[in-house]
Amino acid sequence: MTATESSGSSGTDPSAEGQRRGFGIDVGGSGVKGGIVDLDTGLLIGERFKLLTPQPATPDAVARTIADVVAHFGWEGPLGVTYPGVVTDGIVCTAANVDKGWIGANVEEVVGGALGGQSVTVLNDADAAGIAEEKFGAGRDNTGVIVLLTFGTGIGSAVIHNGVLLPNTEFGHIEVDGKEAEHRAASSVRDRREWSYERWTVEVTKVLVAIENAIWPDLFIAGGGISRKAHKWVPLLKNRTPVVAAALQNSAGIVGAAMAADTDVTATHG
C-alpha cells in the first residue's frame, strides 16, 4: 500500500472514523518526511513519505518541499513542522547546522503561505521527538524530569517535566570541560575520529554528568541514528541517571510535530 492509498480520503479529515488524526512534517538535513498520525496511539496511519531536502535549504525552497509532501497525502487540516534550531513564537532564532537565511524567518507564515493558508505550528526538532517519546515511546511509563538527547551531526535536546515541555533547550551548545558539548560527543565526532564506542562514551558521559548536575533529571532518552545500536554503548556510560534508547526512531519527529499542531506545546503566551 502506498502512502497516498493509506491516507485515502480520510487524509483531509482529522477525525475520520472516530480517530483523532494529525499531520506532522520532520525537516532534516537530508530529507523532508511527513505522515498522518493517530494522536491517541502515536502510530503512523499508513506509510510516511519523504522527499530530499532542497539544496540550498532556504526557507522558501524547504516550504515548497513541505507543500509537496502535504499534497502527497491530500491533507487539508492543521499540521506541525519541525526545525533544527531555536524557534520562538514561530520565529527562527538560530541556524547552527542549516542555511543562515532561516534566522529571523517566520516559519509558520512561510510554510503556511506555501500551503495556501493552512494552519502551521513549528517547533524544534528535538522537542518534537521528546514529547513523542515521553508520551508514546521510551518515557511513557516515567514521571519527573525526562531529558531526550539526539546524537547526530550535533546534539539536540528536549526537557519534559511530568508531560510539560520546556521548549528550546540547547544542551548541545553548553560548554563541557572547555568544549561545546556537541563538538565533544555528537555521533559525527565519533565517526570523524573513528572512535570505538568505549572511547566515545567517555565523552558522552562527560556531557550527561554536566546536564544531570545542573537539573537532576529522572531519565535520559538517547535518540538519533546511533540509538539503534544503544546496546553497544549505553551500558558503557558512567553517569548516575538511567539512560534508555529512544523507541520511536524515525517516526518521533513526525509524531511530535502532529502532537504540537493538535495542542501547541511551545506556546509562550495565552
Describe the structure.
- The protein is of the alpha/beta class.
- It has 2 domains: 3-124, 2-Layer Sandwich (Nucleotidyltransferase, domain 5), CATH 3.30.420; 138-247, ATPase, nucleotide binding domain (Nucleotidyltransferase, domain 5, 2-Layer Sandwich).
- The chain is 32% helix and 25% strand.
- The protein has helices spanning 3-7, 59-73, 107-114, 125-136, 181-185, 187-193, 197-215, 230-233, 252-262, and strands spanning 21-27, 31-38, 44-52, 79-83, 87-88, 91-92, 120-124, 145-151, 155-161, 164-166, 175-176, 179-180, 219-223, 243-245.
- The termini are far apart.
- The model is unreliable at 1-13 (pLDDT under 50).
Helix/strand layout:
Blueprint lengths: L2 H5 L13 E7 L3 E8 L5 E9 L6 H15 L5 E5 L3 E2 L2 E2 L14 H8 L5 E5 H12 L8 E7 L3 E7 L2 E3 L8 E2 L2 E2 H5 L1 H7 L3 H19 L3 E5 L6 H4 L9 E3 L6 H11 L8
Parallel strand pairs: 1-4, 4-7, 8-13, 13-14
Antiparallel strand pairs: 1-2, 2-3, 5-6, 8-9, 9-10, 11-12
In angstroms, what is the radius of gyration? 18 Å
Range of helix content = 25-40%
Order of helices and strands: HEEEHEEEHEHEEEEEHHHEHEH
The number of distinct helices, counting runs of at least 4 residues, comes to 9
The CATH architecture of the largest domain can be named as 2-Layer Sandwich
Describe the largest sheet: 5 strands, mixed
Structural class: alpha/beta
